[in-house]
Design goal:
CATH topology: Thiol Ester Dehydrase, Chain A
Radius of gyration: 14 Å
Strand content: 35-45%
Number of strands: 6
Mean pLDDT: 98
Structural class: alpha+beta
Low-confidence stretches: none
CATH superfamily: Hotdog Thioesterase
Shape: globular
CATH class: Alpha Beta
Strand order of the largest sheet: 1-2-4-5-6-3
Order of helices and strands: HHEEHEEEE
Distance between the termini: 9 Å
Largest sheet: 6 strands, antiparallel
């Protein structure tokens, strides 16, 4: 099973909101979500938690792509624009530092027009456990 397939099938929360990985490469991952009624907050725009979950899914892919179980320890997200009903939003994660214990990544979430909706920085902790998969994608 590839890393893309593994995370799409085992990250049940991300799957439950409709988020899915569409690309995993060396130090890079991309995921998408179409904003539905269930994602809207009281202001009628996409709830920040849905955007965070999409970004976090890409973070998990990049940080675990080296074959060692890595868990998130700190995330900082900035919301700069709203996502609206029906929009397809995309998170892209790029590895900034591939540290043996504390890897760091930058994630950008954008809409189809390329407008940035949120930026996030994620810090992980690499455990001593393997994270087994056959290939990235």
């Amino acid at each position: 099973m590839t890393l893309l397939e593994k995370l799409n099938s085992t990250d049940r929360f991300a799957a439950s909101i409709g988020a899915r990985l569409i690309e995993v490469g060396d130090g890079y991952a991309r995921a998408e979500l179409t904003v539905e009624e269930r994602h809207l907050n009281g202001a009628g725009v996409c709830q920040g938690g849905a955007i965070f979950t999409l970004a976090d899914l890409t973070l998990a892919a990049v940080m675990n792509s080296h074959g060692t179980l890595t868990v998130g320890v700190s995330n900082n997200i900035n919301y700069v624009r709203s996502a609206k009903l029906g929009e397809r939003i995309v998170a892209e994660c790029r590895e900034r530092v591939n540290h043996h214990k504390l890897p760091c990544c930058d994630i950008t979430v954008s809409n189809e027009a390329g407008d940035v909706l949120a930026t996030m920085t994620g810090l992980g902790y690499r455990t001593k456990n393997e994270f087994v998969f056959d290939a990235l994608q």
